[in-house]
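Sample intake sheet
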Amino acid sequence: MFYGVTTPGGVNLPPAVKTGSPEGTNDNIRFSGDKASFDFSHSGKDPLTPGFATPALDVHSSLSFNEDMKNGVLTIMGSFTRDKFPSTEAFITDQSGKTKIFLGAQIENGGICDLYGDNNKKPLFNVNMHVKFDGKGNFTEVQVGKQNYTIADWNKKVQEDFKK
């Protein structure tokens, strides 16, 4: 049985699907010189199933950024916590809006039962990196520990580590 719409040309279009309404908060926002830090939480639910059947997906983070304009380096430190399920990733985008850098990613290691409750104490991943940028604020390189990566190589590494 089809519940969508059939166009005059005979094309079947699927029914409209509800869009989720995720919620987010930013707390402990602090600015000092070239430093900024904040905590954030993000929670969302599947809009198609009843609330009691599908719990919210929760992610929490505490991040700090230190921008060294003279040397073109953005230092990012922080941590992410969340439900064990589903998989989670975080990234930032440079001034161009086109270049993204993964802060981290974690493959799921649980199931739907791990979604119940706000699991804000379960570690996901930590961030401790230096991102080099040019005079226009565009990312050019990532340094983690003593290892330097191109943007593409860093993102590839995070994606490969994600699969492990």
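Comment: Residues 22-162 form one domain. Helices lie at 151-162.
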